[in-house]
Every structure is written in C-alpha cells, then in structure tokens.
Input
Amino acid sequence: MTENEIGKIVVDAAVSVHRDLGPGLLETVYEVALAHVLRQRGLAVKRQVPIPIEYCGIRFDEGFRADIIVDSKVILELKSVEHVSAAHKKQVQTYLRLTGCKLGYLLNFGEALMKNGITRSVSGLEE
Output
C-alpha cells in the first residue's frame, strides 16, 4: 500500500473518531481510538515510537516519540488544542526528516470540524 493510500484511510479514520468522540478530550484518548480504528481497517500501527537523533556520532534514543506510525510509512502527530502552531507543523517535518518517512499528518482533534484540523506534510513524496 502506498503512502497516499494509507493517508486516505488515516483521514477517513480520524474524521470517524472525531465524529464519534467529539472535540476536547485528551490526546491519549484519540491516540488509542485512532490506533484501534486503523488496526480494524487492516493497517499495522505502532504507538509512541521512539525517534532517535544522531549528532556527532552520538545517538539519542530519547529524542522524540511519534504518536503513531502506520505501516512503517506514515507518521501521525495528534493534538487536542484550540489552534495548531507553526511549531506543531515543524515537529511533523522534523519527524519525517529523522525517520526517512515521506508522509505525515498533524491531526488536531480540538477543532470543531476535523477537516479543519488536518495538516498534511510531505518530504520527498511523489504525488
């Protein structure tokens, strides 16, 4: 399955979870629910995946944690905030760069409408 095919499933699943649970819950609630829905749809899902950083020959395994990685190809960063910031969007770009993944989504479950809370990020992905 390509990154874009996975992305379509992710967006549909995020909208479904948001419609069922509504906005304003803790990020962890959405993470557990979204991971469950994605697994039901046949995708391999890993939660709280460490993303190491290498600098000057030193490896920091504690660098970052991706909320969800789907099929080892697509990174999902979940938020439940009033508004996403530029820093949140940069976080996804950093995860893509560090992992070599080509597609990531910033999913803000704090928005009244989920479609307004979806930010797609790419790094070297052919459309």
Summary: The longest strand covers residues 58-70. The chain has a mean pLDDT of 94. DSSP finds three helices and five strands in the chain.
